[in-house]
Design goal:
451 residues; Serine Threonine Protein Phosphatase 5, Tetratricopeptide repeat; two-stranded antiparallel sheet; 45% helix
Length: 451
């Protein structure tokens, strides 16, 4: 199936402009720039191509090509990094004074709903597919939809543990294609709980119906890895440990011998549970663009400061995974314009360790074994079981997963402040884009950003 999908990639790109909403807004649809869906989705090949087009959108710069990771890390910083670039939109995020018309946070909203609309179009045409492909295509589509809704609710709404998730506004849940504008197009914000339930339903279907191997596309273990993240955010530690164990125990993935070996690779490596394909011809890597120096085709906009280096223990090989470029210290994780590892096996070891500690369980393995697998790979001595605490695992996540988009979510789910800013401060939630507020009378703006 991998070859089949790539053989229709060109068709997917051509179809994308016809099937989907415009790049400007969830509710911007120009009939003059579209063709009837009966033509666009009239053959199995076209439907398969539309699915590949949805993957292409899913890995653009507004999503897993960079901004799902970079912007939360900028927002979560309190002295480990510095934004020194000239672009004012990321500067607003870093300064924690985001305007409602910030084009970078807006692109996350618009791009995510673009992906959702693409897969909803695919889901509307499942009957066109051969029976052998129908379930897999539905599962892949629902995985992509779940990932987009999950990332949206994590940044445009309060954290799950901040107040009452059954009352707090989340984001609109879109389950049908947007092909024209009428009253039904103006969806209100579902609650945080409702969004999470929709995400879990889609991911569970994907987990139960995706194959174990699916090329560079989502497979059943990728769905489990995302479910581990979702349960982790909800404080459902037994479920998070179970999903992490399913991935670790699959035998399909393994830690790279060195920490450096997990990054800057032309393809997915053994540690990559899910990665974004980036080639000179296709794909986006904004992490390389903003983290790397000009010597490595980047802008050098994010400097790594001494405070971050002080987090590493003596002898930690990860403390050497930096370089000097453009007069400042740079992370070597995004040194080259190559594949982006979205979920690494190392994350799942740490997720399982913390989950088992909090739940008082030993699902899959002991917390000490999981934590020490990461420490020994980094050249550190293993910790005794008595020293393996939740705080020890959190400290390990801080250095192992640095600059990969985890920090804001880790701080929020554990109720930790960002400097002197409490985790539930209004300024740590993105504003609903102003243009969406103007077009949709049913949307309610987040606190601190006006009406």
């Amino acid at each position: 199936m991998k070859n089949t999908k790539f053989s229709i990639l060109t068709l997917a790109v051509l179809l994308a402009g016809f099937l989907m909403i415009s790049c400007d807004s969830l509710l911007d649809v120009d009939p003059q720039q579209s063709i009837d869906e009966s033509d666009a989705l009239s053959t199995p090949g076209n439907v398969q191509a539309a699915l590949v087009g949805a993957y292409s959108q899913h890995r653009t710069g507004s999503q897993y090509g960079g901004r799902y990771m970079m912007l939360p890390d900028l927002l979560a910083d309190a002295g480990d990094i510095a934004w020194t670039g000239t672009f004012f939109q990321p500067r607003e995020v870093f300064d924690k004074v985001i305007s409602a018309d910030n084009s970078y946070t807006q692109s996350v909203w618009v791009g995510s709903y673009n992906t959702i609309n693409r897969v909803n179009n695919v889901l509307s045409a499942l009957d066109i597919l051969d029976e052998q492909d129908r379930v897999r295509v539905e599962a892949e589509s629902r995985f992509l939809r779940a990932a987009a809704h999950f990332e949206l609710v994590r940044v445009f709404a309060k954290a799950y543990n901040d107040g009452n998730p059954t009352q707090n506004p989340g984001v609109p849940i879109v389950l049908t294609p947007t092909r024209g504008i009428d009253e039904s197009s103006f969806l209100p914000r579902a609650t945080v709980e409702e969004v999470y339930q929709a995400v879990i339903a889609d991911l569970t279907f994907a987990k139960n119906n995706l194959p174990e191997a699916n090329g560079v596309f989502a497979n059943t273990f990728v769905a489990s890895a995302f479910l581990a993240r979702v349960h982790f955010m909800r404080g459902e530690y037994a479920q998070a440990a179970t999903e992490a164990t399913r991935v670790i125990g699959s035998g399909r993935y393994s830690l790279m011998p060195t920490f450096a070996g997990a990054f800057n690779n032309d393809g997915n490596v053994a540690e990559t549970v899910y990665g974004m394909v980036v080639t000179p011809q296709d794909g986006t890597n904004e992490l390389n663009l903003f983290y790397a120096s000009s010597d490595f085709n980047g802008r050098g906009d994010i400097d790594i400061l001494d405070q971050h280096l002080a987090r590493y223990e003596a002898g930690d090989a990860r403390a050497d995974f930096f370089y000097t470029g453009g007069g400042a210290r740079r992370s070597a994780k995004w040194q080259t314009f190559t594949n982006i590892p979205v979920i690494r096996l190392a994350e799942l070891y740490l997720t399982r360790a913390e989950s088992n500690l909090r739940a008082g369980t030993a699902t899959g393995d002991s917390p000490a074994s999981d934590l020490n697998a990461i420490r020994t790979r980094a050249g550190l001595a293993p910790l005794a079981a008595a020293d393996v605490t939740v705080d020890a695992v959190l400290a390990e996540r801080r250095v192992e997963l640095a600059f990969e988009g985890h920090l804001l979510h880790d701080l929020k789910r554990t109720g930790r402040s960002i400097g002197d800013i409490p985790f539930n401060a209004a300024q740590l939630v993105y504003p609903i884009p102003q243009r969406e507020m103007e077009v949709n009378p049913n949307l309610v703006q987040n606190p601190g950003y006006g009406n």
